[in-house]
Description:
This protein has 8 helices and 7 strands; from the N terminus they run ββααααβαβααβββα. By secondary structure, the chain is of the alpha/beta class.
Amino acid sequence: MLKAVVFDMDDTLLSINLSAFLAVYLRDEARLLGDIGRKNPFSALAALGGTFYELNANDRPLDDNRTNEEFYIETIKRRSGVPLDDPVIAEAFAYYEHEVLPHRNDGIISARPRVGAREAVETVVDLGLTVALLTNPSFSRACIACRMGWGDMLDMPFELVTTMENSRRCKPDPRYYLDAIEALGLEPHEVLMVGNDPKRDFPTPDCGIQTAYVGSGNPVRATWSGPMAAFAASFNEIEERFYERQERALTDLVQDVSRA
């Protein structure tokens, strides 16, 4: 039975020029890192960019149970020598993310609620289903809350918002998805993911979570494909396809067992 619908954020519920946002965010944080570590801006940017790359690569041993925040702090220290967990340094970065970053939304970043986003969430909630925000957790809680504010999402009743602090991998690693689903008290077959990124919003390898796709194109793995603006009106169809795909998967499993 479908019990929850979990949403990606960037270009799913939030329209944003993500490349422009990342450029501004990394530039500002690199300047802060450079000032604190007494390094030139290029060296600081290389340390920060390299850390983000390592975090999103998910190239970590299975027994590495560090949160993404812990991994990030340790990698920044290894690459730059700056201890982000020092209270004074942590306060400086927290000030930037709480007080400065929210004012960085300009005509280039152009972050705003995506058409149909609120209707999609309200439709799911009205049906009594759980909703959660499964945005890629390579950012802090404050940074994600900033973008949620730009997307008019702060009042949405998400049971869980994945962040750097509460996640141990990034998309599309199945461990990220399974940890989030477990935190909701659910099983993969009870959850529908909604996202726009064909590389990140489908767990890879597959772990039993279906995805409704609201990006460009029509991925084979998608249970349903279409614009976010049509999601709410199409939810009956989406739900039907969810159960049809679930039934096919069960039939295939029974046949595989019979042949074994």
